[in-house]
């Protein structure tokens, strides 16, 4: 299991970047079309939107559909519709004209990902694994997401378990029709990394004891390769995503280094949880944004409510708001949320949605 520990409880809050804040930060919301958008996903999209608008930047909508087995027909269109209903207007991506970094759907970028995998092989940073297809694809594959990285999937194969063939041998095996996966030679070293939300984090050396798969035997990329390559090519400067992706940070930083690329600034958002501490699930219909819409909630109230989850807005209400709308500093419009957004105010603690507060906000936004 991959873990990360705070390097220092007394460390000062991180700034927007390791140097000066970019004049035009560029962010992305990159969901998988595997079902309805849920509250956690909406909060991630919202915080990307607020960050971009607050600092005069832009944000991309990118559809990460490389896990074809889990795709839900119509999910991409439904996702765009609900984001627009919530007032989240992405600058580039599906449904938008302009922008030079497309296509915005990862399944349309497969050749790009393969080229980067070949580059890593050519520089000795990755290798082809020709073991039996079922073994090679399952051992070490965390393409299904963070659950595998947290120790609930198949074991990950260390580099010394397998000696890859040289280039001539590999080409001969390919000519013979042998399938293979491409693995990244994961460095084995401890890592200290500063997260925009969590501050300095220590990752122990054992996180480097595995060689993650970059390309599966069908030629499709895993999350790690596609994510790093596309964030780079799309000019992303800041990555705001859920805390479940914290275990991926060492892999992603190692990939950026292996490719000779500068990594973005990372900010991981604490999970939304039920009262018993269990994670809110996509499979729970009551946390789907579409369900709130169908029930008649005001989109402004829903956005206001989600913005307060794990974020300290107390005392941030702009003075220009009428007193009868903002007694406690929490009844906020989209423009108010943008004007007051500061990533240093994102809490380290997980948040539990309070239906009573949503009802209160809905009455105030009517």
UniProtKB/TrEMBL annotation:
Region (Disordered): 1-20
EC number: 6.1.1.17
Protein name: glutamate--tRNA ligase
CDD domains: GluRS_core
GO molecular function list: ATP binding; glutamate-tRNA ligase activity; zinc ion binding
Keywords from the named record: Aminoacyl-tRNA synthetase, ATP-binding, Ligase, Nucleotide-binding, Protein biosynthesis
Entry keyword annotation includes Transferase: no
Domain Glutamyl/glutaminyl-tRNA synthetase class Ib catalytic: from-to ranges: 26-358
Alphabetical list of Gene3D superfamilies matching this protein: HUPs
GO cellular component terms, semicolon-separated: mitochondrion
Organism ancestry: Eukaryota, Fungi, Dikarya, Basidiomycota, Ustilaginomycotina
Family per similarity comment: Belongs to the class-I aminoacyl-tRNA synthetase family.
PROSITE patterns: AA_TRNA_LIGASE_I
GO-annotated biological processes: glutamyl-tRNA aminoacylation
A Pfam family per the record: tRNA-synt_1c
